[in-house]
Structure prediction request, 445 residues.
Amino acid sequence: MSAKKNENDLMEKIVSLCKRRGFVYPSSEIYGGLASCWDYGPLGAELKRNLKNFWWDAMTNRRDDVEGLDAAILMHPEVWHTSGHVTEFHDPMVDCKTCKARFRADKLEEARCPLKPSKSPLECGGELTEPRQFNLMFKTFMGPLEDEASAVFIRPETAQGIYVNFLNVKNSSRQKIPFGIAQIGKAFRNEITPGNFIFRTREFEQMEMQFFVHPSEDEKWFEYWREQRWQWYLELGINEKKLRWHQHDSGELAHYAKAAYDVEYEYPFGWQELEGVHNRTDFDLSRHMAATKKDLRYFDERFTEKFIPYIIETSAGCDRTLLTILVDAYDEMEIKGEKRVFMRLSPKVAPIKAAVFPLVKKDGMPEFAINVYHELKKRFKVFYDESGAVGRRYARMDEAGCPFCITIDGQTLEDETMTLRDRDSMEQTRLKTPEIIEFLGKKIR
Ligand code: ATP
Prediction:
């Protein structure tokens, strides 16, 4: 079997597991779906919430120098003129004159011809048009009139909401530079070629942090945030061998950036960007200051001068990180001749932290198990299951990414200990309820 086939197989397996187990469903599926739009099911919604909390905790709660923000998706249209998005936020697009499909001119090698899916548009023999620039911003109308005067953009990134609130946050939080503002929120881009499941979609969520620094300290803070973000992925349990840095050369650098590095992950479809860390200089605040005539400079007692802060940005995709977690966690093992799937999700983000099973549905085991379940439920997301053979119950939880299963058996009724089985090591330990609570607490935090 070719390597390409294996990669496709893995993505297909993940997409199908996500649907089957309730991580991710195609959007509006009973209407035939809507291209590249996805809905998070019960397990996916929980996983996404845990992931966002994990990011928010690391980027704000555990720090004294980063404040949180939740800005509106719709912003004054001038913001997008000032930011350069109206004139610069383009991708080059080509059309195939043969099959009429549309592709990103800079991603032709990765694209597939709809008529000959084994070939890229460069190999299929179709005639391509010259590249044309295509603006990625979605537009809508605000109010009852549908004319240019009421046109607004649906934000293509969360960063601008942070820049326009720089003064507000600085004044209300009384933070001193260096400090940052973090935000998680939806962004929308009319991507020419979305695809690879939730990797590239037109509606997605970003987890962005903008850190404001003195211009003479930009490089120091750039390195600092690169290191922080790398460690965050390791804490999340991502395999370090599948992560690498990609430095943007002068040809790739965005119009606003002095330096940029991407964290890349090796997906089944190749190495791709997961997060960008950018030195945006004073580009953003200077532009907003010129456009609004508001003084966005900062007076720093250390330097006894007023200056426009430089910005170090860390910009991660929430859905893309979620895909990374799923791909990284997917594992298959043969047990007693049967192929079994294990989603080796970290307890920190796993949707269900533990499952509680009575070994059999008699002798008082379900009653004991239900009490344990209610006790754990006060603190953790847990799941109770008494149906079917215990082996099948383990298998279902392994597939759902649940890291621990707790089984109540005959011995429990004598000494109140239960077996706690670790999904990854398969080790079983006998513990009482208070010890289980302590154990889970440590694993999750
Ligand atoms: P790409 O080169 O993949 O289009 P980008 O360089 O335009 O990405 P940024 O503008 O730096 O991306 O956005 C920051 C992060 O937001 C990306 O690293 C990615 O994780 C996420 N992201 C960007 N576009 C999309 C999308 N269409 N779907 C899902 N996530 C996205």
User: Anything to note?
Assistant: The mean pLDDT is 94.
